Amino acid sequence: MSTDETARSDSGGSATAGGVDFQARVAAWFAAQALAGPAAAGVSGLYDSAVLDVSCETGAPVDDCRVSLADGVVLALQAKRSIALGTTAGSELGKTVAQFVEQHLWSGHEHDRLVLVSSSDAASTITTDLASVLDRLREAPDGSSPESLFNTKQTKAHTEFVRHVEREWKKQTESSAGPTGGQLRALLAQCWVWVLDVEEGKAAEHNAVMLLRTTVVADVDRAGDAWNALMQVGVRLSKTKASIDVPGLQREFTRQRIGLATPGLPRRRGSADCVHRAEPGTDERRAHGCSRP
Questions:
Q1: pLDDT at residue 13 tops 60
Q2: How far apart are CA 108 and CA 105, in angstroms?
């Protein structure tokens, strides 16, 4: 990757698309999942429970978005639309890992799922190599050595990520020693890289609009209005450092005169077929944030 490409890929999370920044769009995506309830099946490998509430700029170490799930799981998300495999403490990856370590060491938050959510604009060293490394480490049986199965690129991603962790662990614990093997495994097991292409015209945005159309709004022609309303909710949450739950989202729709669907009533012919055609394939669903099975 060239120097210019690296700079573009390590630009963080503030870039905008359609006037709404990536963080707000991530919050809006989760708000759509919350409103859809059981119809939103979660994200394979990350979570499979209903979304209860969404918060932004929480004041926690990992503060971009916080998502509470019905099964008690908490997702702590750092949104970086574009990010590279930075090697310095001041790189976007270095700063993200520092936040992950601090969140993990925070009493009562050791089981929070630490999610670096990015887009396809990020470097493949993050979205492919590091993501695969973390998945393999998480899924490996106790006592196994999945590191021996890494290819060259995955080994580099693993080495750099662990180097960031060890540096920050020493700094934040004020210790000359890094984490023990068990402590390192416990932290890495709580780390995810997740690609959510939720910017204007991208797959996850399309999926969210289809989800709203087929499960949430009474008038399928208002699905786009509903998505725009949720993006503005995401902007407001970021600006006001606030949270919103399902009743709050429903009140927002009522305020904007967007009717909610009544469960059990028939929907407009053809909407389900539209969703079926629009769904990514099995291997793409996770990458594109598709929440339907």
A1: no
A2: 8
